[in-house]
Automatic annotation (TrEMBL):
Species per Swiss-Prot/TrEMBL record: Kribbella pittospori
Transferase keyword on record: yes
Keyword Transmembrane helix: no
Protein name: RNA 2'-phosphotransferase
UniProt-annotated stretches for the region Disordered: 1-56
InterPro entries (UniProt xref): Ptrans_KptA/Tpt1, RNA_2'-PTrans_C, RNA_2'-PTrans_N
Single GO MF annotation: tRNA 2'-phosphotransferase activity
GO biological process, one term: tRNA splicing, via endonucleolytic cleavage and ligation
Homology family: Belongs to the KptA/TPT1 family.
Keywords for this protein: NAD, Transferase
Length: 234
């Protein structure tokens, strides 16, 4: 905005003189002064527009978070990303492989509610959920980087009804992952899938359990006799 003009005066309805502040050419009673184009009207986004923009930003953050997590959990080996045995990679290398900007990576770590990722200085890793095949990680190195815990209360695992017969025979196996994922409470959302139909209560007292930075609890497997409760999800 340019330098303010001189003070202007006018008269009110009683005829008394009133003084205004410095005239800037944008007063409604004197349009067009101070600028050949007249006063500029600024349009503010409506509430639906603001909410739509926020929703779109959330979609972008979620998409970027999934891309980074997939690389750090499952595809680092095949894509040539250098990674330590406990899952750490240089942020610069991740950005190069994914052709991603640092600001988008920071937003994916900071704003995503899944808490998938952990950053330490200039390195990054997935908190847990790594594949065993084709990845540089080892169970031993991951466990050494997590916290060993000794819970007394039941831990919880979500699954679907179709999987129950096999679980009752064989217990919980990690499948292609390094560890079985358990939650500290039945209402925990960390690591929980939307397709969960049944919650299994696990007695952890005879299990070696580790806690990842995002709170997921991780034994290597759970035998059938440690599953002591089955609750349907309503």
């Amino acid at each position: 905005m340019g330098t303010a003009g001189p003070l202007r005066a006018s008269r009110d309805r009683t005829g008394r003189r009133q003084r205004f502040g410095p005239y800037d050419g944008c007063r409604p009673e004197d349009p067009g002064q101070g600028s050949a184009a007249g006063p500029v009207l600024h349009r503010h986004a409506s509430r639906p527009e603001r909410e739509g923009a926020r929703a779109q930003a959330d979609v972008v953050v979620s998409r970027d978070s999934r891309r980074i997590s997939r690389l750090l959990r499952h595809t680092a080996g095949e894509r040539g990303l250098t990674m330590s045995a406990d899952g750490w990679s240089a942020i610069a290398d991740v950005l190069a492989v994914l052709e991603l900007t640092r600001s988008k990576l920071d937003a994916a770590v900071r704003d995503n509610d899944k808490q998938r990722l952990q950053v330490d200085g200039e390195r990054i890793r997935a908190c847990q959920g790594h594949s065993r095949a084709g990845m540089p990680v080892t169970r031993e190195a991951l466990e050494n980087s997590w916290e060993r815990v000794y819970p007394d209360d039941l831990l919880w695992h979500g699954t679907n009804r179709q999987a129950l017969p096999a679980i009752q025979r064989e217990g919980l196996k990690p499948g292609r992952r390094t560890h079985v994922h358990l939650a500290p409470s039945s209402d925990s959302q960390v690591g929980r899938r939307t397709s969960v139909e049944v919650l299994l209560g696990v007695d952890p007292r005879n299990l070696a359990v580790y806690r990842a930075p995002n709170g997921v609890l991780l034994p290597r497997e759970v035998p059938p006799d440690a599953i002591v409760r089955v609750d349907a999800v309503h």
